[in-house]
Each structure stands twice: as structure tokens, then as C-alpha cells.
Write a structure and sequence with these properties.
Layout (H helix, E strand, L loop, with lengths): L14 E2 L5 E4 L23 E3 L2 H9 L7 E4 L6 E4 L2 E8 L14 E2 L4 E7 H4 L5 H6 L12 E7 L4 E10 L6 E5 L2 E10 L2 H4 L3 H8 L2 E4 L2 E4 L14 H13 L3 H12 L8 H12 L5 H16 L4
Parallel strand pairs: 2-4, 6-9
Antiparallel strand pairs: 1-2, 3-10, 5-6, 7-8, 8-12, 9-10, 10-12, 11-12, 13-14
């Protein structure tokens, strides 16, 4: 007689469900183990469209570790999926025609070399959680600090495989702020495969559609209906000038300058939109005054209930 089917339990190991399908939790599966002595299969698709579903991306990564008929188990609602020797991140970037972006939206920096990413404080665990370990923190014993694999898409388009990335905490305080009572930790994802990606049309289109370039620096672009964008002749001095206004308490005047920068329709101007405009102006700066202004701005927004 056939063995009695086993139902999977949360956080459990391999099992067979009632339908007779073998299920293997992602944390039992390797995604970095070389196949037949060569590199991992999925690295051939770096910079290319993979598909619209997370499952397509994950099954590609785990293809060499799954036997025929075995189904990979993971949380489909999570923005990250842990594996035995790494972690996979999924990022949905806004399109030009989507609604207003959150103060905690992911942003491309340094012409697409770096993507900002946010992790809930409870998942971060002070950099000592299992998730942090897989990201390369807390004395990680994963084989490489670059064990994180990133997939990004714009809107509801196809996910693009951005390959491996190294994860770091920006020099500013890791505790970026509280959004609706949740503390978020800001991290930087630096693309290891940048030299390959910058030549791939799908990736270039993804980055170019969301940033405005100026002398090697980027200002993330927001909803095109609100912020048409403008090329700054001296981005650094503009950032410092508006930062000075915020630090001196002239937030409204700083918003006015930001509105002019992004040519925001007067009918669309509000405190909420102004905060977003200023955040976009300050994005990517390492200047201490600009960083301080961004922190003040976030606290002000939180006090106004805009986060």
C-alpha cells in the first residue's frame, strides 16, 4: 500500500502533500552550488527578462537542486525568500504613471549600481537574525558575502534578473524611521554584475525610466503626472541650499523650491507631495547637512501622520 501522504507544516522539512506532490521548503535548497563543475545555470540570464511570476524566478534558481516532480515551497507574499546558502529579493519599482510613491520607495543610485531596499526591524533583528545572516551580516557563515540574488521589475512587467548583490548599511543610522508604527532598516544593494548589466537593454531601460541623470549622479523621478523632472546644473549646491532651509525650519520654502524643480502642477501641490519632492532632491547625497535635513523631514512627516 502507498505511504500515507504527509501535510507540510510551517517551517517544517520536506514532505508529500495529500495530492502526492513532493514539497521542499526553500531553506533546504541551494541556489549557488555549481552545476557539473561549472557556474550556476541562472547566471546566464543576468540582465534578461525572466517572467512575471516569482515562481518562475525561483524555480530557475533552484532548477539544479530540485528533482523531477518536486515543488519548491516558499511564502509567495514575501518580498524575500530564504534559501540554504543565500536569499532572493524581489523589488517592484513604480512606473512613471503610477500613484504617489512612498517615502520609503526603492531608489536607484549611482546610475543603477545601487538600489535602496528596506527591511522590517523585526526581520533585521539588529543584524543578527537568520535573514541578516543570509544577507551577509552578523558573522555570516554563508560561502560568500554576495549570496543575495536580486530580481526587479517595473509595475507589473517581467522580473529582470539583476544577479548577485552585496548588501550594506548606509553610513547614516540604520534605523531609517517609522512607517505606520513599523521601524524600517534601510540597506544598499550593490550589483556585483554591474559591468554586464549596464550593457543589457532590459536593465538599462528599467533604470533609465526611473532616474534623471546629472553629472554621474541621480535624482529618482516620481510620478510623471506630478513631477516632470528637470536637469539640475549643480545638483550638489541645490541639495545643500534646500537642506539649509529645512534645518533652519523653512520647510515650506524648501518645498516651494522643490515644486519648481519638478515643475509640479499648482493644483497638485500639497504637504504630502512636497515631502516627496524634497526627499527626491535629497536622495543619494552623502553630505552631512543634506542627511540631517532628510532626517528632519522624515520626523516632520511622521509627526504629521504622512508616513
Amino acid at each position: 500500500a502507498p505511504s500515507t501522504p504527509l501535510m507540510p507544516t510551517q517551517g517544517g522539512g520536506p514532505c508529500i502533500d495529500k495530492s502526492g506532490i513532493a514539497r521542499l521548503p526553500s531553506h533546504f535548497v541551494s541556489i549557488h552550488k555549481p552545476c557539473n563543475g561549472s557556474g550556476v545555470i541562472w547566471e546566464d540570464v543576468v540582465g534578461k527578462n525572466v517572467g512575471k511570476e516569482k515562481r518562475e524566478c525561483l524555480e530557475l534558481l533552484a532548477a539544479h537542486s530540485l528533482s523531477t516532480g518536486t515543488r519548491l515551497e516558499y511564502n509567495p507574499r514575501s518580498g524575500f525568500v530564504p534559501f540554504q546558502d543565500g536569499i532572493v529579493l524581489f523589488v517592484n519599482m513604480p512606473t512613471r504613471h503610477q500613484g504617489r510613491r512612498s517615502l520609503y520607495s526603492n531608489e536607484w543610485l549611482n546610475e543603477g549600481r545601487i538600489l535602496t531596499w528596506y527591511l522590517r526591524d523585526k526581520d533585521w533583528g539588529g543584524g543578527k537574525s537568520e535573514t541578516a545572516r543570509l544577507l551577509g551580516f552578523g558573522g555570516a557563515n554563508v560561502e560568500t558575502k554576495e549570496s543575495t540574488v536580486l530580481f526587479v521589475r517595473s509595475g507589473s512587467g517581467d522580473f529582470i534578473c539583476c544577479g548577485r548583490c552585496s548588501v550594506s548599511v548606509p553610513q547614516v543610522d540604520a534605523s531609517f524611521g517609522k512607517a505606520k508604527g513599523k521601524c524600517l532598516v534601510k540597506l544598499h544593494l550593490e550589483l556585483v554584475h554591474w559591468d554586464v548589466l549596464k550593457e543589457m537593454p532590459a536593465f538599462v531601460e528599467l533604470v533609465d525610466s526611473l532616474v534623471i541623470k546629472d553629472k554621474g549622479k541621480n535624482v529618482p523621478e516620481n510620478d510623471a503626472d506630478l513631477f516632470t523632472g528637470t536637469i539640475m546644473t549643480d545638483l550638489s549646491s541645490f541639495q545643500k541650499r534646500l537642506a539649509g532651509m529645512v534645518v533652519d525650519g523653512n520647510v515650506i520654502d524648501a518645498m516651494g523650491s522643490a515644486f519648481e524643480c519638478f515643475k509640479t502642477d499648482p493644483k497638485e501641490r500639497s504637504i504630502d507631495v512636497g515631502v516627496t519632492c524634497l526627499k527626491n532632491v535629497f536622495a543619494g547625497s552623502n553630505d552631512p547637512d543634506v542627511i540631517k535635513a532628510a532626517e528632519i523631514l522624515n520626523k516632520t512627516a511622521a509627526n504629521l501622520g504622512l508616513l
